[in-house]
Amino acid sequence: MNDATAAADMNTSSRTTIRPDEAAHFGAMARDWWDPKGSSAMLHRLNPVRLAFVRAAIDRHWGVDPAGIRPLAGRSALDVGCGAGLLCEPLSRLGADVTGIDAAPENVMAAAAHAEGAGLPIRYMAGEVGTLDIGTFDLVTSMEVIEHVGDKPAFVAALADRLAPAGSSDSGRGGLMILSTPNRTPQSRLLLVGAAEAAGMIPRGTHHWEDFVTPAELSDLLAAAGLTMGTPQGIAFAPAKGLHLSQDLSLNYIVTAVRNA
Predict the structure, then answer these.
(1) Distance CA 228, CA 91 (A)
(2) Is residue 30 within 8 Å of residue 110, measured between CB atoms?
(3) Domain range spanning residue 236?
(4) By Cβ atoms counted within 10 A, which residue in 110, 165, 173, 252 is the most buried?
(5) What would be one Pfam family of this protein (predicted)?
(6) Which residues carry a binding-site annotation?
(7) Would you give the end-to-end CA distance of the chain in angstroms?
(8) Cα 192 → chain centroid
(9) Three-class SS of residue 72?
(10) What residues are designated binding site for S-adenosyl-L-methionine?
(11) Helix axes 215-224, 152-161, angle to 10 degrees
């Protein structure tokens, strides 16, 4: 790496992505984050759907037994924008050595306390993912976060920097990234921002529709960071099925990404 490239990489990783107002908004919910009927109730409903996608992606990427109970044993995982640990704890139970990062110190403290009570050895840190000296990880996740950051290219580049390179694991596949985010569509504006917040299903001020990222935009952001995006799956809602994985991307979607071959 020449000096110019090193300087460019340093500038990208050091750019601020945290929005203080967003961190304060989510930090204010720290005390009841684990209450399935509290302000994060929608995340509790969403988490099993995301976990089903995550588990299937892990099995495909590393060729592990779908019936195994610890498919991440011997692997490391990083969850960025971890909140109070709703995803970190299942990843730990799947066998991973887990690190969670969040912009809000209040969330990190709540996450650490909950993990300690559950007997789970999860490392939690507050701050910018691009400035923390934490190394690389086999699995990098960031769920419902990119729509809240201030500099999306810098954020995706920082996530990519944390992804283990090819040849770093026993399979030689390198790291796996999984992201989820609302899609910027008329449907999401009506239902996620309008109806859900008006009905109290999501705290007011949680979503800003103009910051939502379309699948095409996310693909471009990942490509600029040297990653290839997989086929997105929608997270949809139906009265008979509740939240579920779907081909309908109009509200929310979840994707994998890997380093370019």
Answers:
(1) 23
(2) yes
(3) 3-259
(4) 252
(5) Methyltransf_23
(6) 50, 81, 102, 143
(7) 19
(8) 18
(9) coil
(10) 50, 81, 102, 143
(11) 50
The DSSP element (H or E) to which 117 belongs, if any, is: helix 105-118
Rg (CA), the chain: 17
Q: 243, 236 in Cβ contact below 8 A? A: yes
Distances, alpha carbon 119 to alpha carbons 29, 102, 164, 184, 210, in Å: 23, 21, 27, 39, 40
Q: Could you tell me if 107 and 32 are in contact, meaning their C-beta atoms sit under 8 angstroms apart?
A: no
The tokens for 208 are 């800003």
Report residue 147 CA to chain centroid gap: 11
DSSP H or E run through 245: strand 242-246
Single-letter residue type at 156: V
Q: What CATH number does residue 204 fall under?
A: 3.40.50.150
Instruction: Return the ∠ at Cα 166 (arms to 161 and 167), rounded to 5°.
Output: 130
The pLDDT value recorded for residue 60 is 96
Could you give the number of structural domains in the chain?
1
Q: Are 139 and 97 in contact (CB under 8 A)?
A: no
CA distance 138 to 163: 6
Cα–Cα distance measured from residue 228 to residue 224, given in angstroms and rounded to the nearest whole number: 9
- Virtual torsion, Cα 121, 122, 125, 128, nearest 10 deg: 150
Q: Which two tokens stand for residue 203?
A: 């705290």
